[in-house]
């Protein structure tokens, strides 16, 4: 009786494996039972296994050919007539009989071994199914509930109870999650492991941004607008090049939407990351002009052979072109394929001194700070007011005063 109860309990556990189809579950159970019986009665045994998973019932039937006494050639598949007539007096040589095998015919050790074998096979199939499911989901967004927060990663469960992870370095810098909160990420890698596949996700991958755009903008999802490229500084800024195959469609306007309503959901999901939508063109000059938005360029010199470009603009546009931490010009260079430098428009043909020439009097880190705000020459520094230089560079007043003094003295020589 206890063995039967153990088996019924095992069936109850199997019913929790919802991702395994019923027919597959039945086949696993039948195969496992048959292997156990063949081990006991011989590999050639003709055995039928009938399983009722819901009730926890199992029935075994063993088929034997009746042969004359002393004529047995295979004890696994044959029975002597003298033994057969004890079961049913009307049996004759050449007929088949079947005997019912009960669980009570097996010892407790056999039952425990059977249970362990069943659980191992079910877990193996479950693991394979999870791997196959998520291997197809690489590049897709998944939703989950945060379960654990570790030092190096966050684990979460999807709607089917499958565990996924997102490493800390795949989170947006401003991401902060608590246990039980909903998280969205894109599947980037699935690796087979001993117990369960390791499913890695990301929120900083360009693919995550691409899938979010597909969700929010019907024209992208339907293929009317194509995303050609995406570059990001996660949580800070992103640039996306788009192209419409129908000239009647404005790809940038369609992506942004009226008053930014379409792009707003994407920006919110990315922790207010600035997103620039750039209309793709094969004209490199126009492409660079668009990529440096919101800065306005007055002139552009392109070196096609070396894939470099110099953008000339008014002094008040330089900081816009460079952007916070240099992100705007960095992303513009990546998305256009050109190394872009910016300089003042009146620097063309005008006598000036490169800021680097002052390195014997001005510390290198101060020069780098000034270059980061677009001041790459002596005159570009002097064109900005003292207060403006202090505000933009966050340098000490005494430092700015000393820089101005050094540069002025050089031009007065």
Spatial order of the strands in the main sheet? 7-6-5-8-9
Number of helices: 15
**Helix and strand element order:** HHEEEHEHEEEEEHHEEHHEHEEHHEHHHH
Q: Quote the beta fraction.
A: 15-25%
**CATH architectural type of the largest domain:** 2-Layer Sandwich
Would you mind describing this structure in some detail?
- With 413 residues, the protein is of the alpha+beta class.
- It has five domains: 2-132, N Utilization Substance Protein A, Chain:P, domain 4 (2-Layer Sandwich); 144-203, Nucleic acid-binding proteins (OB fold (Dihydrolipoamide Acetyltransferase, E2P)), CATH 2.40.50.140; 205-279, K homology (KH) domain (GMP Synthetase, Chain A, domain 3), CATH 3.30.300.20; 281-341, 2-Layer Sandwich (GMP Synthetase, Chain A, domain 3); 355-412.
- It has helices at residues 2-14, 22-41, 81-87, 108-135, 206-216, 218-221, 251-256, 261-269, 284-291, 315-322, 327-336, 364-372, 378-382, 386-393, 397-412; strands at 46-52, 57-67, 78-80, 96-101, 141-149, 153-157, 163-167, 182-191, 198-202, 225-233, 237-244, 274-279, 299-303, 308-313, 339-344.
- The strands form four sheets. The chain has a five-stranded antiparallel beta sheet with strand order 7-6-5-8-9.
- Strand 8 (182-191) and strand 9 (198-202) form a beta hairpin.
- The longest helix has 28 residues, at 108-135.
- Mean pLDDT is 86; it is low at 1-6.
């Amino acid at each position: 009786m206890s063995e039967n109860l153990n088996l019924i309990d095992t069936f109850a556990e199997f019913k929790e494996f919802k991702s395994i189809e019923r027919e597959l579950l039945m086949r696993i159970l039948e195969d496992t039972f048959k292997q156990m019986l063949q081990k006991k009665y011989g590999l050639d045994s003709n055995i039928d296994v009938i399983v009722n998973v819901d009730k926890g019932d199992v029935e075994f039937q063993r088929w034997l050919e009746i042969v004359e006494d002393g004529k047995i050639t295979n004890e696994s598949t044959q029975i002597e007539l003298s033994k057969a007539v004890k079961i049913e007096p009307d049996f004759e040589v050449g007929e088949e009989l079947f005997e019912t095998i009960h669980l009570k015919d097996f010892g407790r050790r056999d039952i425990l071994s059977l249970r362990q074998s069943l659980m191992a096979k079910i877990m193996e199939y479950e693991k394979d199914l999870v791997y196959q499911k998520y291997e197809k989901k690489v590049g897709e967004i998944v939703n989950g509930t945060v379960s654990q927060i570790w030092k190096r990663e966050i684990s979460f469960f999807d709607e089917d109870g499958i565990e996924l992870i997102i490493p800390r370095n795949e989170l947006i810098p401003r991401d902060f999650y608590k246990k039980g909160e909903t998280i969205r990420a894109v599947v980037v890698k699935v690796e087979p492991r001993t117990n369960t596949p390791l499913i890695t996700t990301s929120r900083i991958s360009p693919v995550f941004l691409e899938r979010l755009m597909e969700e929010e903008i019907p024209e992208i999802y339907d293929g009317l607008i194509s995303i050609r490229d995406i570059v990001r500084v996660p949580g800070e800024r992103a640039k996306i090049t788009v192209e419409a195959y129908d000239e009647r469609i404005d790809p940038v306007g369609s992506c942004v939407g009226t008053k930014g309503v379409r792009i707003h959901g994407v920006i919110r999901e990315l922790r207010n990351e600035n997103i620039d939508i750039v209309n793709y063109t094969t004209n490199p000059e126009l492409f660079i002009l668009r990529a440096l938005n919101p800065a306005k360029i007055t002139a552009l010199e392109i070196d096609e052979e070396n894939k470099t470009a110099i953008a000339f603009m008014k002094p008040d546009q330089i900081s816009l072109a460079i952007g916070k931490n240099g992100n705007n010009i960095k992303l513009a260079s990546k998305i256009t394929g050109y190394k872009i430098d910016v300089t003042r428009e009146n620097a063309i043909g005008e006598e000036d001194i490169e800021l680097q020439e002052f390195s014997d009097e001005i510390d290198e880190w101060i020069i780098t700070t000034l270059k980061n705000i677009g001041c790459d020459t002596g005159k570009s520094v002097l064109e900005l007011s003292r207060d403006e230089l202090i505000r933009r560079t966050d340098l000490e007043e005494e430092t700015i005063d000393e820089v101005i003094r050094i540069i002025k003295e050089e031009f007065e020589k």
